[in-house]
Automatic annotation (TrEMBL):
<dbReference type="InterPro" id="IPR001352">
    <property type="entry name" value="RNase_HII/HIII"/>
</dbReference>
<keyword id="KW-0963">Cytoplasm</keyword>
<dbReference type="GO" id="GO:0004523">
    <property type="term" value="F:RNA-DNA hybrid ribonuclease activity"/>
</dbReference>
<keyword id="KW-0255">Endonuclease</keyword>
<comment type="function">
    <text>Endonuclease that specifically degrades the RNA of RNA-DNA hybrids.</text>
</comment>
<dbReference type="GO" id="GO:0032299">
    <property type="term" value="C:ribonuclease H2 complex"/>
</dbReference>
<keyword id="KW-0378">Hydrolase</keyword>
<dbReference type="GO" id="GO:0043137">
    <property type="term" value="P:DNA replication, removal of RNA primer"/>
</dbReference>
<dbReference type="GO" id="GO:0003723">
    <property type="term" value="F:RNA binding"/>
</dbReference>
<keyword id="KW-0479">Metal-binding</keyword>
<dbReference type="GO" id="GO:0030145">
    <property type="term" value="F:manganese ion binding"/>
</dbReference>
<keyword id="KW-0540">Nuclease</keyword>
<feature type="domain" description="RNase H type-2">
    <location>
        <begin position="14"/>
        <end position="202"/>
    </location>
</feature>
<dbReference type="GO" id="GO:0006298">
    <property type="term" value="P:mismatch repair"/>
</dbReference>
<dbReference type="InterPro" id="IPR022898">
    <property type="entry name" value="RNase_HII"/>
</dbReference>
<feature type="binding site">
    <location>
        <position position="112"/>
    </location>
    <ligand>
        <name>a divalent metal cation</name>
    </ligand>
</feature>
<keyword id="KW-0464">Manganese</keyword>
């Protein structure tokens, strides 16, 4: 998990930021990105793609990363902006915002399969959250941040089970949309893609 970082450290790069986002494929809610600079030599046991970790393990690693990181930036892009500029551009904007909130500034970005709109030198790593500790750390911060937002959204819209499925297109979520209609937090452009097969009305 440190091969990419080791190569960059050997090239003289000191402040390497991992960057990742969560919520791209959801029907509901904002997209969240995180950028994380970890200290050189830190090894996080069991760190991995956040989706492969239990909630308990993610929460524990979140606390460790928050305590140990040299810098953490978080970017959030809301549903209205997602609808206006499309989800791919919204995810990139969230990443750009997260990187822009790092202090100190990074001298290299390791990004999970994307390009960030930044002058900082960077590398897109396919499946980066499973290959780079820095990207995996960003994945965990973004995932836990968004999951906690889902708990708040669940209180606003208790009929939909947001705390359970986190806004993804599960069978339960689709059924609740069919029963209750869409909320202002649902991504209408995503629902249109489901409309033909699901008869979703909003």
């Amino acid at each position: 998990m440190l091969e990419y970082e080791q190569n960059l450290w050997q090239q003289g790069k000191q402040l390497i930021a991992g960057v990742d986002e969560v919520g791209r494929g959801c029907l509901f809610g904002d997209v969240v990105a995180a950028a994380v600079i970890l200290p050189r030599g830190l090894v996080l046991e069991d760190v991995n793609d956040s989706k492969k970790l239990s909630e308990k393990k993610r929460d524990a690693l979140y606390e460790v990363i928050m305590a140990e990181a040299l810098a953490i930036g978080i970017g959030i892009v809301d549903v209205r902006t997602i609808e206006r500029i499309n989800i791919k551009q919204a995810a990139r904007l969230a990443m750009k915002t997260a990187v822009g909130r790092l202090d100190p500034d990074p001298d290299f970005l390791l990004v999970d399969a994307e390009k960030v709109d930044s002058d900082t030198e960077q590398l897109a790593v396919i499946h980066g959250d499973a290959l780079s500790q820095s990207i995996a750390a960003a994945s965990i911060i973004a995932k836990v941040t968004r999951d906690r937002m889902c708990l708040q959204w669940d209180q606003q819209f208790p009929e939909y089970g947001i705390a359970i499925h986190k806004g993804y297109a599960t069978k339960m979520h689709r059924a609740r949309i069919m029963e209750f209609g869409a909320t202002p937090m649902h991504r209408k452009t995503f629902l249109r893609n489901l409309e033909a097969e699901q008869q979703v009305l909003f």
